[in-house]
Design a protein that fits this description.
Layout (H helix, E strand, L loop, with lengths): L1 E6 L5 H12 L3 E5 L7 H5 L3 E7 L7 H9 L9 E8 L4 H6 L2 H11 L3 E2 L4 E4 L11 H15 L2
Parallel strand pairs: 1-2, 1-3, 3-4, 4-5, 4-6
Helix pairs in contact: 1-6
Protein backbone atom coordinates (compact mmCIF):
# COMPACT_ATOMS: atom_id res chain seq x y z
CA UNK A 1 0.00 0.00 0.00
CA UNK A 2 1.17 3.52 -0.76
CA UNK A 3 0.04 5.98 1.89
CA UNK A 4 0.47 9.71 2.37
CA UNK A 5 0.04 11.22 5.82
CA UNK A 6 -0.41 14.98 5.79
CA UNK A 7 -0.41 16.46 9.27
CA UNK A 8 0.15 19.67 11.14
CA UNK A 9 1.47 19.80 14.69
CA UNK A 10 1.91 22.70 17.08
CA UNK A 11 3.40 21.06 20.18
CA UNK A 12 4.60 17.79 18.62
CA UNK A 13 1.73 15.56 19.79
CA UNK A 14 0.02 15.29 16.41
CA UNK A 15 3.39 14.58 14.80
CA UNK A 16 3.94 11.69 17.23
CA UNK A 17 0.50 10.27 16.37
CA UNK A 18 1.24 10.65 12.64
CA UNK A 19 4.52 8.78 13.19
CA UNK A 20 2.78 5.94 15.02
CA UNK A 21 0.25 5.72 12.20
CA UNK A 22 3.00 5.65 9.60
CA UNK A 23 4.98 3.01 11.49
CA UNK A 24 1.90 0.77 11.71
CA UNK A 25 1.23 0.78 7.97
CA UNK A 26 2.88 -1.75 5.67
CA UNK A 27 4.22 -0.52 2.35
CA UNK A 28 5.43 2.87 1.18
CA UNK A 29 4.45 5.59 3.63
CA UNK A 30 5.28 9.26 3.19
CA UNK A 31 4.67 11.84 5.91
CA UNK A 32 4.57 15.57 5.22
CA UNK A 33 3.40 18.75 6.78
CA UNK A 34 0.90 20.51 4.49
CA UNK A 35 3.56 22.91 3.22
CA UNK A 36 5.52 19.90 1.87
CA UNK A 37 2.73 18.65 -0.39
CA UNK A 38 2.10 21.28 -3.03
CA UNK A 39 1.04 19.30 -6.05
CA UNK A 40 -1.97 17.14 -6.85
CA UNK A 41 0.17 14.32 -8.36
CA UNK A 42 1.71 13.72 -4.92
CA UNK A 43 -1.78 13.00 -3.61
CA UNK A 44 -3.03 11.15 -6.68
CA UNK A 45 -0.20 8.60 -6.55
CA UNK A 46 -1.27 7.01 -3.24
CA UNK A 47 -3.76 4.36 -2.20
CA UNK A 48 -4.61 6.00 1.12
CA UNK A 49 -4.54 9.65 2.17
CA UNK A 50 -4.57 10.36 5.91
CA UNK A 51 -4.93 13.92 7.16
CA UNK A 52 -4.41 14.98 10.77
CA UNK A 53 -4.35 18.12 12.89
CA UNK A 54 -4.56 19.27 16.47
CA UNK A 55 -7.98 20.56 17.47
CA UNK A 56 -8.10 24.31 18.09
CA UNK A 57 -11.51 25.70 18.97
CA UNK A 58 -13.16 22.72 17.33
CA UNK A 59 -11.25 23.21 14.06
CA UNK A 60 -8.13 21.98 12.33
CA UNK A 61 -5.14 24.30 11.90
CA UNK A 62 -4.96 27.06 9.32
CA UNK A 63 -2.17 25.20 7.52
CA UNK A 64 -4.38 22.12 7.03
CA UNK A 65 -7.29 24.35 5.97
CA UNK A 66 -5.14 26.15 3.40
CA UNK A 67 -3.80 22.85 2.05
CA UNK A 68 -7.27 21.31 1.75
CA UNK A 69 -8.57 24.47 0.08
CA UNK A 70 -5.82 24.25 -2.58
CA UNK A 71 -6.77 20.73 -3.64
CA UNK A 72 -8.81 20.88 -6.86
CA UNK A 73 -12.38 19.66 -6.50
CA UNK A 74 -11.82 16.50 -8.56
CA UNK A 75 -8.30 15.62 -7.36
CA UNK A 76 -9.54 13.29 -4.61
CA UNK A 77 -12.37 11.63 -6.51
CA UNK A 78 -12.48 8.02 -5.35
CA UNK A 79 -9.38 8.46 -3.16
CA UNK A 80 -9.56 6.37 0.01
CA UNK A 81 -8.93 8.65 2.97
CA UNK A 82 -9.04 8.96 6.73
CA UNK A 83 -8.82 11.80 9.25
CA UNK A 84 -7.46 12.12 12.76
CA UNK A 85 -6.89 14.77 15.39
CA UNK A 86 -5.34 15.33 18.76
CA UNK A 87 -7.51 16.82 21.45
CA UNK A 88 -7.71 17.61 25.12
CA UNK A 89 -10.33 16.02 27.32
CA UNK A 90 -13.90 17.01 26.48
CA UNK A 91 -15.00 20.39 27.78
CA UNK A 92 -18.08 22.54 27.37
CA UNK A 93 -16.40 24.19 24.37
CA UNK A 94 -15.66 20.87 22.69
CA UNK A 95 -19.25 19.80 23.26
CA UNK A 96 -20.34 22.96 21.45
CA UNK A 97 -17.67 23.19 18.73
CA UNK A 98 -16.60 19.56 18.35
CA UNK A 99 -13.23 18.31 17.17
CA UNK A 100 -11.02 18.64 14.10
CA UNK A 101 -11.13 15.07 12.71
CA UNK A 102 -14.83 15.03 11.75
CA UNK A 103 -14.37 18.43 10.06
CA UNK A 104 -11.31 17.17 8.16
CA UNK A 105 -13.34 14.12 7.11
CA UNK A 106 -16.16 16.33 5.80
CA UNK A 107 -13.64 18.44 3.88
CA UNK A 108 -12.20 15.32 2.28
CA UNK A 109 -15.69 14.08 1.36
CA UNK A 110 -16.47 17.45 -0.24
CA UNK A 111 -13.49 16.78 -2.54
CA UNK A 112 -15.12 13.39 -3.40
CA UNK A 113 -12.71 11.30 -1.31
CA UNK A 114 -14.04 8.06 0.16
CA UNK A 115 -13.68 7.75 3.93
CA UNK A 116 -12.49 4.29 4.91
CA UNK A 117 -12.77 4.63 8.66
CA UNK A 118 -14.25 6.67 11.43
CA UNK A 119 -12.33 9.86 12.20
CA UNK A 120 -9.77 9.15 14.92
CA UNK A 121 -9.35 11.31 18.00
CA UNK A 122 -6.27 10.96 20.22
CA UNK A 123 -6.03 12.56 23.63
CA UNK A 124 -3.40 14.87 25.06
CA UNK A 125 -3.18 15.64 28.78
CA UNK A 126 -3.17 19.42 28.33
CA UNK A 127 -2.84 22.06 25.64
CA UNK A 128 0.85 21.25 25.16
CA UNK A 129 0.65 17.57 26.05
CA UNK A 130 1.96 15.04 26.67
CA UNK A 131 -0.10 12.44 24.88
CA UNK A 132 -2.30 10.42 27.16
CA UNK A 133 -0.73 7.04 27.94
CA UNK A 134 -1.56 4.42 25.32
CA UNK A 135 -2.53 6.82 22.54
CA UNK A 136 0.38 5.89 20.25
CA UNK A 137 -0.67 2.26 20.45
CA UNK A 138 -4.31 3.18 19.92
CA UNK A 139 -3.33 5.17 16.79
CA UNK A 140 -1.53 2.11 15.42
CA UNK A 141 -4.60 -0.07 16.00
CA UNK A 142 -6.86 2.59 14.41
CA UNK A 143 -4.89 2.67 11.17
CA UNK A 144 -4.37 -1.11 11.06
CA UNK A 145 -8.15 -1.51 11.16
CA UNK A 146 -8.46 0.98 8.30
CA UNK A 147 -5.78 -0.82 6.27
CA UNK A 148 -7.36 -4.24 6.79
CA UNK A 149 -10.76 -2.88 5.69
CA UNK A 150 -9.14 -1.91 2.38
CA UNK A 151 -7.79 -5.42 1.59
Amino acid sequence: MRALIVYDSVHGNTEMIAGAIGDALAGEVRMHRPQGVDDAPAVESVDLLIVGSPTHGGWFTEAIKDWLDKIPADALQGMRSAAFDTRTRPTILSRIFGFAAPRIARSLEKKDAILVGEPGGFSVEGIKGPLKEGELERAAVWVQEIASSME
